[in-house]
Design goal:
244 residues; mainly alpha; Arc Repressor Mutant, subunit A; Four Helix Bundle (Hemerythrin (Met), subunit A); 2 domains; three-stranded antiparallel sheet; 11 helices; elongated; binds zinc ion
Length: 244
């Protein structure tokens, strides 16, 4: 279970490589660099990621680069197309709508469970997170804020106490974070802190109906903030990866 922002961003990668992680430091470093570059909007949606350029930039073998690109494709960060190579994912408006719809359905059920199962300690943990969020509101750059806000949703899932639901939520939250990072104008907060706070109030009161309704509205507001008209950018691949 991802407990904080850095764990969230690599949860899926580590899960698949835990048996061989010590041999995969190079792969993990390349994965993180590309992931961070996408999340900080240096790499724009649709940017081509030619294998040869990545091998040169990271001084890595083609086999290593291919493995990393496959991991990134598995996590929906890049797209791999036969004969066209890899490029940064560019979710369509239809895919964006589907991802948010799935998340609303999943999270309204999760929050209902949380309202039934939350212990006093769970509520205290959620309140502690809200404090952290509040302290970070004006301080953190947009991508960091997106991750912190996303980790709140995973903490609610942990309170619900069903690891299978949490597993599916991790994938949906990662995909939403990517969409928000790719398309939302900087400075426009992804999640309303005030709404997180009210969700915790309803969980504490055991009011699953209200908690579920508010969660659905909260995610609808997040979806409304997403813009799907990225500007063209002509930076070099090395610069967008933060290597030059
Ligand atoms: Zn939120």
């Amino acid at each position: 279970m991802a407990k904080n922002s850095s764990e969230l961003q690599n949860a899926s990668f580590k899960k698949r490589t835990k048996l061989t992680v010590s041999a995969n430091d190079c792969e993990e470093a390349i994965y993180k660099t590309i992931f961070e570059s996408v999340m900080t909007q240096r790499l724009k949606p649709g940017t081509k990621l030619p294998e040869a350029s990545l091998c040169e930039l990271f001084s890595a073998s083609r086999a290593t680069v291919r493995k990393v690109l496959q991991s990134l494709a598995h996590d929906h960060i890049v797209e791999l197309r036969p004969n066209r190579g890899a490029s940064v994912a560019a979710p369509t408006p239809e895919q964006t709508r589907e991802i948010f719809e799935a998340r609303r359905i999943l999270e309204s059920s999760i929050v209902r469970l949380a309202a039934v199962n939350a212990k006093r300690l769970d509520i205290a943990t959620l309140r502690q997170r809200l404090k952290q969020e509040h302290a970070s509101l004006d301080r953190l750059p947009q991508p960091e804020w997106v991750r912190l806000a996303s980790s709140f949703h995973l903490a609610v899932a942990e309170t619900a106490g069903n690891p299978i639901l949490t597993h599916y939520l991790i994938e949906l939250v990662s995909r939403c974070s990517l969409i928000v990072a790719l398309y939302e104008p900087p400075g426009n907060a992804s999640c309303e802190h005030e709404e997180h706070s009210r969700i915790v109030d309803y969980i504490e009161q055991g009011d699953g109906d209200r908690a579920a309704r508010l969660m659905e509205n909260h995610l609808s507001n997040l979806e409304k903030n997403v813009f799907l008209n990225p500007e063209e950018d002509d930076h070099s691949l090395g610069r967008m990866l933060g290597l030059k």
